[in-house]
Amino acid sequence: KTRRLLGCHIVGEGATELVHIGQAVLNLKGTLEYFVENTFNYPTLAEAYKIAALDAWNRMPPLED
Q: Hey, how many other C-beta atoms are within 10 angstroms of the C-beta on 42?
């Protein structure tokens, strides 16, 4: 209902270099919009946040007013 980020899990090589992005957004009570609206370097693994957010965005119903 709020699109607020509830958690962040990353497993695999380079996980320690990526998880801090999700942790920062969680700490700031960020939402899906953060990942959709912000710029991530390309090509980097950090861009996976934006790709995942866009996938989630396309699957979710619109927020009610």
A: 8
